[in-house]
């Protein structure tokens, strides 16, 4: 007989392997079909590039998201039934010995499919024609990443199994635990949105939390293409060690009679009960909030909290008779009432907090999601918003901030106009207000007409003239005239001058009754300036080059630009017009015009008469008028203006 102090028992491990060999066989076959078999079916006649195993990796971990958890539930199934747990603990093993040997058994079952398919991949790489596209480094990367995620997930599932007395609960709670960091963040956002005026829930907090658990790590970004795995590896090692250690100590203190209970550990029962209460309340309140498009009253909070509390209590005692547990719910209501008072009367001072102008280094305003994308040294933002350091602009923002706090405007269509201060002590203060920029443009006017703001927000100033690529002019009918480099450079200079000299524009590129649209295409080197990435799209033929189209609209009243355009294209005269086209223009909204072609005019006298009737700037308040378009013999159409009546 083995000593009770023996940690490793070959018989126990082999018994587990013989009982669950079919799990490894099934998973091995599945992995073979989605990885080696797929590679063996590549047609090399049409495939000359290096094969990427990224999709194979994600398919593998997708299988292991189910397989690793299922193995943990099967191996430790004996903990969840009274007869099995009594029988197992009557054998000559310590709890440490049982825990270690069962954990190792599951680990071996987890690894068998990966190891077998790893060997097959090396055989394919070494002895088949597919070695020309299959890299050894890709094979190892697939194996190591899959192993890291799978073993960590398995260990977490084992730990969860020691807390619960139900295999179904073990599986469910494992998945819940994997999304818990992001889930808690989302619940906080759902509950507090609209209650705390100015609260900004940062998207980057949520995305950063994704890397904390093995399942969500694959959602945070393309894990396959990640350059630095150091933080991910450290997180998984910590999770692995913690889950093994915590799982053992919970197992050691576990009462055998708890088999069958949803929560087997008494310490966790209140956490489970009130956790379910808060979650049900948050989801229910959020659902009602979006149905009524506003904030529900306190009764809705209480009703959904009661529903969550009742569900949790029934699961814990496995009975519908929960009336005598009402005191716990009253305690929860007391805490909820105190929290409501703190929020209602802003007892923390959060809503009223505005920094002094002299304490602010720079400020960000506008629609953005991630303060981490703001570079305060270069005053650039990758995700929207303008970064301002001019003291006058900072003062204007502070004044706007004070106005919003005092008047608390609520525009239910907008929930994300942000203000963020970087203080001189390095701290960041962020606020998010439910306002429409257009409704409060009078308060932003001084900021938007400042040179600092225009230099940041206009795409014309993002790049140097040396980076100027193709330049083209579009008329309202999308006909294109391409300019030479010198013409484009001249026009770029004029356009920049127009933006800086203009008195005020709420939005730099509002679609409206403009004559031409310019598209500047810049060829840039991403390696030279990482901050340009969000403004570019990759050219598939150039690994380090990108192109950035910048759109610029020219108003009819911009006479200098209009004249410059007319120098670049064929002037419109009766001699070079094939015909005029009349279009019925209907103003649907401020920035939307519907066009309906009426007829074409080819008679010279009639064309001359129509041209003489053309007016400009008299259609602002009209719902309907007629647009005049000229088709040249060179095949492009130009917009000439409007006539009020035919």
Offer a few descriptive terms.
alpha+beta; four-stranded antiparallel beta sheet; 49% helix; 646 residues; five-stranded antiparallel beta sheet; 20 helices
Structure write-up:
The structure is a single chain. With 646 residues, the protein is an alpha+beta fold. The chain folds into 5 domains: 10-177 and 241-258, no CATH class; 268-342, no CATH class; 357-457, no CATH class; 459-567, no CATH class; 570-643, no CATH class. It has helices spanning 10-19, 21-34, 36-40, 54-75, 82-89, 95-127, 136-163, 167-192, 203-209, 214-220, 230-253, 268-292, 298-317, 326-344, 391-407, 441-448, 451-457, 485-501, 559-568, 604-612; strands spanning 360-366, 374-375, 380-381, 386-388, 417-423, 428-433, 468-474, 480-483, 514-525, 537-538, 545-555, 577-589, 592-601, 624-632, 637-643. It has a 5-stranded antiparallel beta sheet. Strand 10 (537-538) and strand 11 (545-555) form a beta hairpin. Helix 8 (167-192) packs antiparallel against helix 9 (203-209). Residues 506-515 and 526-544 have low confidence and may be disordered.
Care to give the gist of this entry?
The protein has helices spanning 10-19, 21-34, 36-40, 54-75, 82-89, 95-127, 136-163, 167-192, 203-209, 214-220, 230-253, 268-292, 298-317, 326-344, 391-407, 441-448, 451-457, 485-501, 559-568, 604-612; strands spanning 360-366, 374-375, 380-381, 386-388, 417-423, 428-433, 468-474, 480-483, 514-525, 537-538, 545-555, 577-589, 592-601, 624-632, 637-643. With 646 residues, it is of the alpha+beta class.
């Amino acid at each position: 007989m083995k000593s009770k102090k023996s940690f490793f028992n070959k018989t126990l491990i082999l018994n587990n392997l013989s009982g669950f060999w079919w799990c490894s066989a099934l998973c091995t076959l599945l992995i073979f079909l989605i990885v080696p078999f797929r590679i063996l079916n590549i047609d090399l006649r049409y495939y000359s590039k290096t094969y990427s195993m990224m999709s194979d990796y994600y398919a593998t971990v997708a299988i292991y998201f189910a397989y690793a958890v299922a193995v943990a539930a099967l191996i430790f199934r004996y903990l969840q039934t009274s007869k099995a747990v009594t029988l197992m603990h009557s054998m000559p093993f310590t709890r440490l010995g049982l825990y270690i040997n069962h954990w190792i058994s599951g680990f071996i079952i987890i690894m068998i499919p990966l190891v077998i398919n790893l060997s097959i991949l090396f055989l394919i790489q070494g002895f088949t024609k597919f070695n020309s596209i299959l890299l050894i480094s890709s094979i190892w990367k697939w194996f190591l990443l899959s192993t890291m995620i799978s073993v960590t997930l398995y260990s977490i599932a084992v730990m969860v199994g020691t807390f619960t007395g139900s295999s179904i609960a073990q599986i469910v709670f494992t998945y819940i635990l994997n999304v818990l960091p992001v889930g808690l963040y989302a619940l906080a956002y759902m509950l507090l949105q609209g209650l705390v005026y100015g609260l900004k829930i940062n998207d980057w907090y949520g995305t950063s939390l994704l890397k904390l658990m093995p399942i969500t790590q694959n959602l945070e970004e393309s894990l396959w293409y990640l350059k630095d795995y150091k933080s991910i590896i450290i997180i998984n090692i910590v999770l692995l060690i913690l889950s093994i250690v915590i799982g053992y100590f919970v197992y050691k203190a576990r009462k055998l009679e708890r088999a069958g209970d949803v929560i087997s550990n008494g310490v966790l029962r209140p956490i489970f009960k009130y956790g379910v209460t808060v979650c049900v309340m948050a989801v229910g309140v959020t659902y009602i909030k979006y149905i009524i498009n506003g904030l529900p009253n306190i009764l809705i909070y209480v009703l959904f909290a009661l529903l969550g509390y009742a569900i949790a209590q029934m699961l814990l005692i496995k009975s519908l008779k929960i009336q005598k547990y009402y005191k716990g719910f009253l305690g929860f209501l007391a805490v909820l009432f105190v929290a409501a008072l703190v929020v209602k009367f802003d007892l923390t001072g959060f809503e009223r907090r505005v920094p002094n102008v002299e304490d602010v280094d720079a400020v960000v305003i506008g629609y953005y999601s991630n303060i981490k994308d703001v570079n305060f040294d270069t005053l650039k933002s990758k995700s929207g918003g303008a970064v301002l350091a001019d003291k006058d602009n900072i003062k204007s923002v502070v004044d706007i901030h004070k106005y919003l706090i005092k008047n608390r405007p609520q525009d239910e269509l907008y929930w994300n106009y942000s203000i963020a201060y970087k203080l001189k002590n390095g701290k960041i203060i962020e606020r998010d207000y439910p306002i429409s920029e257009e409704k409060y443009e009078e308060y932003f006017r001084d900021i938007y007409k400042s040179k600092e703001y225009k230099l940041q927000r206009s795409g014309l100033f993002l790049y140097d003239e040396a980076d100027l690529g193709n330049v083209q002019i579009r008329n309202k009918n999308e006909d294109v005239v391409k300019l030479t480099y010198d013409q484009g450079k001249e026009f770029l200079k004029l356009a920049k001058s127009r933006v800086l000299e203009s008195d005020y524009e709420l939005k730099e590129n509002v679609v409206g009754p403009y004559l031409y649209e310019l598209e500047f295409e810049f060829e840039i080197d991403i390696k030279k300036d990482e901050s340009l990435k969000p403004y570019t799209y990759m050219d598939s033929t150039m690994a380090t080059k990108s192109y950035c189209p910048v759109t610029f609209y020219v108003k009819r009243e911009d006479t200098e630009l209009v004249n410059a355009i007319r120098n670049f294209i064929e002037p419109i005269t009766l001699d070079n017009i094939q015909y005029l086209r009349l279009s019925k223009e209907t103003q649907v909204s401020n920035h939307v015009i519907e066009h309906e072609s009426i007829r074409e005019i080819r008679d010279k006298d009639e064309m001359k008469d129509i041209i003489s009737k053309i007016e400009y700037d008299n259609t602002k308040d009209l719902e309907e008028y007629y647009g005049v378009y000229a088709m040249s013999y060179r095949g492009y159409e130009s917009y000439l203006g409007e006539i009020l009546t035919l």
